[in-house]
Write a structure and sequence with these properties.
InterPro entries: DUF4046 (IPR025119). This is DUF4046 domain-containing protein. The chain has eleven helices and no strands. It is mainly α. It has two domains: about 1-95, no CATH class; about 100-200, no CATH class.
């Protein structure tokens, strides 16, 4: 029964056994419930934290001390999680915790790329329809907050010369969009903002 997993976890914490049985999590029907029970016990009974506190404060060192590395492989990290991030382990155990909306998660990733906290975007971040939505959030942010455009109709003229367009995309860490998702800066702008496809907007300065 899944409820007995906590007793086995206590024995691991007490040093009475080193790890879970290799067959412990084979049954997919109970795997998630078992993992949630372990994480909740660690947070509520060992650390004596609230779920909200755990999401803020849980660290890699805590994961090691709580022996949660033994179950980490059963929790798929979200695409935006960095290698050292562990907040999602708490979110997995408490699915009703409020999450950041998708747009805010994208902006968090983009701002970390801009600031150098991340060297690059996560692998496959801009693939699929979801990836195109993320790309649009990043370009909107670039236009409004980095280029500080008061009117989006200024964008085509900025991007009308390919060399300048690539320079701006490189400066604001979005050249990857043209490298992987769009054929050219023109294609990117007109795909994202169809209303800007009129040739009159693209007359070079």
């Amino acid at each position: 029964m899944p409820s007995k997993i906590v007793d086995r976890y206590k024995r691991i914490l007490n040093g009475e056994q080193k790890r879970f049985s290799p067959y412990e999590f084979e049954d997919a029907q109970y795997r998630k419930q078992k993992v949630q029970l372990i994480v909740r016990y660690a947070i509520e009974n060992v650390k004596k934290w609230t779920p909200e506190q755990a999401r803020r404060e849980l660290s890699l060192e805590d994961i090691k001390q709580l022996k949660l590395h033994l179950i980490r492989e059963y929790i798929e990290p979200p695409i935006e999680a960095k290698a050292e991030d562990v907040y999602y382990i708490v979110e997995y155990a408490y699915p009703h915790l409020p999450r950041l909306p998708e747009k805010q998660r994208v902006l968090w990733v983009y701002q970390e790329v801009l600031s150098g906290i991340r060297r690059h975007f996560p692998p496959a971040y801009f693939q699929s329809v979801k990836g195109e939505e993320r790309a649009k959030v990043c370009v909107d942010y670039m236009c409004q907050h980095l280029l500080k455009l008061s009117d989006m109709r200024e964008l085509p003229r900025l991007f009308s010369k390919t060399e300048r367009a690539y320079s701006l995309l490189k400066k604001f860490k979005l050249k990857i969009l043209v490298d992987t998702l769009y054929f050219s800066p023109f294609d990117m702008v007109t795909e994202m903002y169809p209303e800007l496809s009129d040739p009159v907007y693209w007359e070079a300065e």
